Automatic annotation (TrEMBL), chain A:
Signal peptide: none annotated. This is Aspartate carbamoyltransferase. PANTHER family: ASPARTATE CARBAMOYLTRANSFERASE, ORNITHINE CARBAMOYLTRANSFERASE, MITOCHONDRIAL. Keywords: Pyrimidine biosynthesis, Transferase. It comes from Streptomyces cathayae. Residues 3-147 form the Aspartate/ornithine carbamoyltransferase carbamoyl-P binding domain.
From TrEMBL, chain B:
It catalyses: (S)-dihydroorotate + H2O = N-carbamoyl-L-aspartate + H(+). It comes from Streptomyces cathayae. HAMAP family: PyrC_classI_B (MF_00220_B). CDD domains: DHOase_IIa. This is Dihydroorotase. Binds 2 Zn(2+) ions per subunit.
Amino acid sequence: MHRHLISAADLTRDDAVLILDTAEEMARVADRPIKKLPTLRGRTVVNLFFEDSTRTRISFEAAEKRLSADVINFTAKGSSVSKGESLKDTAQTLEAMGVDAVVIRHGASGAPYRLATSGWIDAHVINAGDGTHQHPTQALLDAFTMRRRLVGPDAGIGHDLAGRRITIVGDVLHSRVARSNVDLLHTLGAEVTLVAPPTLLPVGIESWPCEVSYDLDRTLPKSDAVMMLRVQRERMKAAFFPTEREYSRRYGLDGERMRRMPEHAIVMHPGPMVRGMEITAEVADSDRCTVVEQVTNGVSIRMAVLYLLLGGNETALTRTTEEK
Amino acid sequence: MSKTLIRGAKVLGGDPQDVLIDGGTVAAVGTGLSAEGAEVVEAAGKVLLPGLVDLHTHLREPGREDSETVLTGTRAAASGGYTAVFAMANTFPVADTAGVVEQVWRLGKEHGYCDVRPVGAVTVGLEGSTLAELGAMHESAAGVTVFSDDGKCVHDAVIMRRALEYVKAFDGVVAQHAQEPRLTEGAQMNEGVVSAELGLGGWPAVAEEAIIARDVLLAEHVGSRVHICHLSTAGSVEIVRWAKARGIRVTAEVTPHHLLLTDELVRTYNPVYKVNPPLRTERDVLVLREALADGTIDIVATDHAPHPHEDKDCEWAAAAMGMVGLETALSVVQETMVDTGLLDWTGVADRMSFAPARIGRAEGHGRPVSVGEPANLTLVDTAYRGSVDPAGFASRSRNTPYEGRELPGRVTHTWLRGTATLVDGKLT
């Protein structure tokens, strides 16, 4: 049994499909009057959040509680970390308390990888977002949402996303969501196109398994799903693009642009959305926008990952790069 | 002072000869030498080099004695075959006054494992805004000849120009840490394919190359000497080559780690590979090796940067930059330059002893192995191969990227003015 989920790139096609299929099972639990399974009874999971993220933390917490795990929430703010304690010491303290799994969100790229591979702790490590590197459960919930919408919930069992055309738009440079999605969607057979101004694409992107375009209008008509990324307003001060207005004109998604997409195509966003700039209210509130579903699906995906890592009997996840 | 007879060593890799040390100097070089009462060192098969000179060492004292001290750093130097090191100015307090440089110089003199030549800061507090008292540091007992804000770039063009002009008065040299600060904000590794994948802030090659281009033109304009620290990119090599062809008085160094390691290693997120400038690509490594071989790059300098364990045993972003290098430098140079056929041992002597001593004006060092010269010598067992074990380091810090890696060559003996500082691999 493999121990950690650090990067979407660590997942094989079969791993990913197994997680998506398991998440379908977990989604059914949410429809029951009592939304709980006994799978992780007696296991302790700590949500180790060095970076604020209410949405992701609550999603993991809901997933853990639905699997009957004992949950400890740890936020760096006001903790010993703010007094200068290191990641290693914090992790070892938690391990000494008998933690079985650590869900970690950290501002530094690679922090979960270090936690999993440095011998500091024995617990399973699940990456809940590290710096501008990876956010694998976000990519999984996005793929899950796409499969449900584009293939269908039950019809989707066992299926990947072969041949689907996915467009990811916005601040790719600073986005762990974009990195994770490119890796996972490629593994699942989708064709990914990244659309952004050149300033918001990393140097070295040519090695990624995707297409790159600066032109949103040309990409939209051939997209099955368009995923908008959040644009951090503070980026504007760093001269990544001239003005909010210019960004919005070239890379924002409004109703007119949405209508150029194929009829079946969906609009996605990892949230929180900046309405008016990257996405208009008309698009955000339309039936084609899956933002709310993504949140719901996030719980199912995280249940599936926790179940397969800690509670399931089948091998689900690949080894980390180093273990390979 | 006792006599020492080094018997049958390949002097600078050439034919086996005997070398007699007497009274701190080389007394005789030849074959079949004998000297009554002399301690004999059997050196058949080993290579005898002039004592190595490192133009770029961080000894951390004063201020960060938990990382390194002048004593531990010079012991590490002697272990690596060095007889002189230039100690960088980014200490606490900064070595920007005659008082601090004299303190470092005096500690080196007292400990006696190698000569310590302090580098003076170019600007007060390394802050880049006001010139430090360069003349006072030169006139001090330490006799500073090399000035550098290393760790930081002298990014203000006017300050750099003034520093280059000012040191002409006493034939000093400004050693530049070439890093355009705005282009490297948040930078954590080489910008390229790997940084894009890992989501780590990119340190673009152009941030180094732009400063080098500016500074060689400034040096030309004011007719001064400029030395470029730790070149790391193929583009930097091209600029230095162009500048030299144009007659500009520029010299340049490369570190052993930039001759061997690439940014692919950062995939491990192990901060032992975090260094400034960052590890670059395979192509850069190959170009740097060629440039060192053809003389475009003048010297190898270690950028020995000790850090305590806790400063590296953490997540990448929080880790300190730098790696120790004094004790492994010669092995890495053998691996990358000698064993690849790019450089012979005379070439190594030039890049690691003659040239750095000349650039830094380290009198008595970087001299030929011939009669009457100071007996600053290093004996190397070039046939040795073994894995690096940092537990045996003399340095106070262990942040080496080579732990467990097999490297060739081992320094067995080092002599500083005829006195052995290292015998059979053990410090005296």
